[in-house]
Amino acid sequence: MTLAGLPLFPVTVVGSWPRPPYLLEALRSRQAGRISFQEFNRVADRAVLEALKYQEDAGVDLVSDGEQRRDNFYSFVVEKLEGVRLMSLGEIMNYVEDKEAYDNILRSMDAPAFSIHNPTVVDRVERRGPIALDEYQFLREHTSRPIKITLPGPYLLTRSMWVKGVSDAVYPTQAALAQDIVAMLREELIALRDEGAEFVQFDEPVLTDVAFNPEVKERTFMCASMAASSGDPMKELVMALRLMNDITRGVDGVKTGVHVCRGNWSRKEDALLRGDYEPIVPYLLAMDTDQLVLEYATPRAGDMDSFANRKKLSEIGLGVVNPRTDQVEDPEFVVGMVEKALAYFSPSQIYLNPDCGFGTFAERPMNPPEVAFKKLQVISEAARQLRETYS
Ligand SMILES: [Zn+2]
After folding, report:
1. Distance between CA 14 and CA 149 in Å, rounded?
2. How close is the Cα of 65 to the center of ligand 1, in Å?
3. Strands, E assignment, the chain
4. Ligand 1 centroid vs 141 CA: distance in angstroms?
5. pLDDT in tens, 136-183
6. From residue 1, how far is each of 62, 147, 280 by CA, in Å?
7. How far is the CA of 170 from the centre of ligand 1 (A)?
8. Distance between CA 96 and CA 262 in Å, rounded?
9. Is the pTM of this model over 0.70?
10. What are the two backbone dihedrals, phi and then psi, of residue 329, each rounded to the nearest 5 degrees?
11. Long-range contact list for 250-254, CB < 8 A, 24+ apart?
């Protein structure tokens, strides 16, 4: 089945799925160096199949592997790239200019300590092999449904991996590192396309932090970016746009998307960012990608007015359930959200997904699989109702 064969309002996920206890155990063994990545992957195979089954049983049309082989959505690249090393909080602190402010930010943002292992460039970056093609190939063997593969966005990777005082010995500037990152991600996108992957989503959650926290000198979003930015949001957003387009330009035959949210590391709503998409919409719309995958179930994301009178967006992956709540939304809530979106988008432009993954960080899932499963079922039921009305 291809994407073109899907019904209206295809149901999909943003990417991650909660890890079962045996997988977390294997992940910790891997992180302690007790087992190889190959050995870890043999354990993860089982977890991927379980994550897939949950999705298929819940009626998800476009499935992911639940990011079961990743510790989180961007640090995992240390397994895939030469020249990158995880740095602990203690090591990072040595390079942070304002240590007290940094510490305060970590506390106020409810940052999970385990997430503060930053993938840092310490040498020339090179691919050891594929970044996600191996994940795709395994999943392809086990499902006939179209597959979504997630990749960390080029801006996120550049910002997080370039640490002043460490990385500049190899890459004098962020821009120099960005060139290599763009080349690698483009190569990966093309490899995924050539193998038949239907959808590749680039995750750029840090864009909201750039837009909403311009006064913060050292970016703090999930600690994803330790390097001081230019401090000029517009300049940063232009850079994010340029990097993305350098990857996707001229690559046809695979649907691409960009995911933006306001954080998914805490259930404390006031620890997460707040603000509508307005400041970043012009940059998102200028990206040469097919779909924007955006959270909207949380009121912190504002309403959809940002898309009024803008015609360029071809598709939206509409966030219709909150992955961080115990309460399972009902189908009427989802249908209501889609009806609001229909003021700005036609039925054929709308995919349905949760606001974000259910396990962005392996060690801090936002819900157990049983709740995640129910939330996906609700989206499927809403899609069924919507198809009856709009097909
Ligand atoms: Zn997200």
Report:
1. 9
2. 16
3. 81-87, 118-127, 148-152, 199-203, 255-260, 291-294, 315-321, 350-354
4. 27
5. 999 999 999 999 999 999 999 999 899 888 999 999 999 999 999 999
6. 10, 10, 34
7. 31
8. 23
9. yes
10. -60, 160
11. 251/186, 251/189, 251/190, 251/193, 253/193, 254/189, 254/192, 254/193, 254/197, 254/198, 254/199, 254/200
Looking at domain 3-390, its CATH architecture is Alpha-Beta Barrel (3.20)
**C-alpha 172 to ligand 1 mean position (Å):** 30
- What token pair was written down for 382? 């809403």
Pairing of strands 350-354, 118-127: unpaired
> Residue 338 C-alpha to ligand 1 middle, in angstroms?
19
Residues with a beta carbon under 5 angstroms from ion ligand 1? 205, 261, 264, 356
Burial class of residue 245, CB neighbours in 10 A (0-12, 13-18, 19+): middle
Give the Å distances, CA to CA, from 331 to 151, 381, 385. 30, 6, 9
Q: How far is the CA of 11 from the centre of ligand 1 (A)?
A: 17
Distance 299 CA to ligand 1 centre (A): 15
At residue 96 the predicted structure's pLDDT band, cuts being 50, 70 and 90, is confident
Instruction: List the domain boundaries for the chain.
Output: 3-390
